[in-house]
Structures are given as structure tokens and as C-alpha cells.
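Would you be willing to look carefully at the protein I have copied below?

:::
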Amino acid sequence: MKPLPADTLAADTLAADTLPYLSSAYLDRLSISTADMVDEIERQIVGQRRGEVWCAPKAVVLPGDDRYIMATLGVASTPPVLATKSLVVNPRNAERGLATINSLITLLDAETGLPLALVDGNWVTEKRTAALSAVAARRMAASEASSIAFIGCGVQARGHLEAFADLFPLREIRAYGRGTANRDALCRLAQSRGLRAVPCDTARAAVEGADMVVTSVPLVPRPTPFLDANWLKPGSFTVMTDQALPWLPETMPRFDRIIVDDLEQERNMAKPMVDPAMVAGDLTGLVCGDFAGRKSPEETTAFVFRGLAVGDLAVAALAYGRAQAAVWVGA
């Protein structure tokens, strides 16, 4: 992988065989920290408020055969990058020996439109999803939170474990999922970080008493609600990366404060994730200080989200910048 320095991106250098591809293995070697990603997402969120960053609501296509096809688009002024992500979720991929979710991010120079790089979209999706949750958690979770429950133990659970272990004084995780393989792998990851790991046989056993909860139940096929918000500990913080679909709607008033990722995006969706009357605001309002994430230690809070283009933009552009820097250092 040889990213091209910005000043060499002339039209005659952009043949297909020279366009750099940032693979997941290469991106891992860049050692970008959770704090770096969270800070960059927050900076670009503030840029949106200032009119320096522009993102379109995510576009979704549902062919009706259990596939979920999605695209995001974001443009930044600093650095001047345009990021588009194309993603396909297909549960039949397992029969092919492939990951259920596959995606690709294309980076263009936002001024000229010339291509800069292709970036592994699965890596960015994992990292930016956990980092978006961490942006909310910084303001909505108790700073001393030491236990976290995972409902769903796949890629997003692993990403959130890494991110939250970096930012909170975690001592224990509880894990519940459909199969034991992912659950046990998540427990081993937690143990490798010196955490106590508790595999749970029921969702309720995982959730009750936890300081934080992360739900990442697969969206296809559409899950039947089975999670009861009344199980939650007072003062806990919950992240729902699965659009709150696994949660029993009639129990959602248990939360004292709910925010979503983007109010405008929600208005463009056919069906809201939660009753709009229960939503205190969105991530931009939270980061920009329009309202408090938590008013008292006993407030039970939640961040519910579909995914946000600014997250893909921020993390992919940060990774590209680090790749460029690595080339210059190694030159």
C-alpha cells in the first residue's frame, strides 16, 4: 500500500493501478487511538454546525430479499476530502464463506474531485460506529462506569469493547448473543485486556446491574423485540447501534433521556427509531452544548443511531492523513 502525497495527485498519476487502497491490515498498523478518532469526529461535528462540513442523510435500498444496501456521503473543508461509503448487508454471505457486511469508502479531493484513495469500509464502519458511541458516552455515561453488557457479540461488540475500555475504568463485561462462538471470543478479548468476562445465558442476566449496555443485534432478518428497558440499572447508559429494533417499544419511556445521531436524517426516514416525542436532541446538539447529556447521576440515558456520514468521513480522512504521514516519514 503506497498512499500518494497530496501534491503528486495530478491527473496523469491516477490510473487504476496507482490508486492506493488502505486495507484493514494496513489501517491497524497505523495505530490510530480511540481518543484520536473520537476527537476527530467531534471536530467534524462542530464543523457541520459552522457550515464547514456537509453530510447527506444516509440512503437505503431494501430489495426485499433480506439484503440491506446503504450509502453515505460527507464533505469536509479541513482536510478537503469527500467520502462516500457503499455497504451491503447480506445474511446469505455466510453460505459463501464471506462476512455478512461488506463495504468500501472512496475518498476524493473535495476541491478538484480527483480520487485520493480507496479505504476498507468494514474497518471504518467498525471504528467509527464505536467512536460515535464514545462521543455520546463521554457526555451521557457516568465517568466511573466499570461494567458493560453486550447484547450481540459480533464485530460491533468487539469494536465497542476496545473503545470503551480505552475511555472508561472498566473491570467487567457481560456477554449475551445468539451463538456461543462470538460470545466466547468477546469474552477472551475482554480477558486479554485484564477484564472479568461473564458469559450470560439470558439477555436479562447481562443487562441487569450493568453501568453501560451496548446492543448490536443484526438487522437482517429484522429482529423481534425482546429487550426490556425496565431491566436497566438507574443511572446506566445504553448504546443501541441496531436502531432500537430489539427493544420492546412500550418499555422505552423507562429512559430519562434519549438522543439520536441526526434529527434531519430521522425526518427523512420512513419510520423513526423511537417516538420523536421522547428524543431530547441529536449528536450535534450534544457535542455543541445545546443540552446536557446527563442532568443527574440517577438519569438513565440512551444513544440510538443508524450511522452517521460524518463518522465515516472523519475516520476515513484521518486514516488517509496518517497513511500520508507514514509515507513521508518512511521516505
Observations:
- The chain has nine helices and 14 strands.
- The longest strand covers residues 53-61.
- The chain has a mean pLDDT of 92.
